[in-house]
Specification:
There is one protein chain. The protein has 5 helices and 7 strands; from the N terminus they run βαβαβαβαβαββ. With about 140 residues, the chain is of the alpha/beta class. The strands form 2 sheets. Strands 2-1-3-4-5 form a 5-stranded parallel β-sheet, sandwiched between helices. It has a two-stranded antiparallel ribbon with strand order 6-7.
């Protein structure tokens, strides 16, 4: 199973995004503050961190910097209303792998999630094919 940490304090975004990720076969954990997200990211075994920049307690940039200082393997996708070019550059320089501005189109966001997870290489959710039978664990399909 692919584990996603969603750090988003706006319930109107977190709830539907969490459901959409769950429908895609991901296990989703939601945190609403920067310190809680950082602690989970460092303690957990997550494959992807979707990180809002405007988190209470500690902003997403600082969370990203600290995650990068301790975990280079975790894919980080920043999700924020700050859409100026300088904000994208600062986010990417802080260690994010991708940056999506709000409002976002769900189909595009999901495609970016899949692309980031593909870059991690084959894992336990990778399709397996044996004797003409293909199993796709992430999609829960044979």
């Amino acid at each position: 199973m692919t584990d996603v940490l969603l750090a988003e304090d706006d319930e109107a975004i977190a709830a539907p995004l969490s459901r959409a990720l769950g429908r895609e076969g991901y296990t989703v954990t939601v945190e609403q503050t920067g310190p809680a997200a950082l602690q989970r990211a460092l303690d957990g075994n997550f494959d992807l961190l979707i990180l809002d920049l405007g988190l209470p307690g500690m902003d997403g940039l600082e969370v990203c910097r600290q995650v990068r200082a301790n975990s280079s393997e975790l894919a980080v996708l920043m999700l924020t209303a700050r859409t100026d070019e300088v904000d994208f550059v600062v986010g990417l320089d802080a260690g994010a792998d991708d940056y999506v501005g709000k409002p976002f189109r769900l189909a595009e966001l999901m495609a970016r999630v899949r692309a980031l997870l593909r870059r991690r290489g084959p894992g336990e959710d990778s399709p397996i094919e044996v004797g003409g039978i293909r199993m796709e664990p992430a999609a829960r399909r044979v």
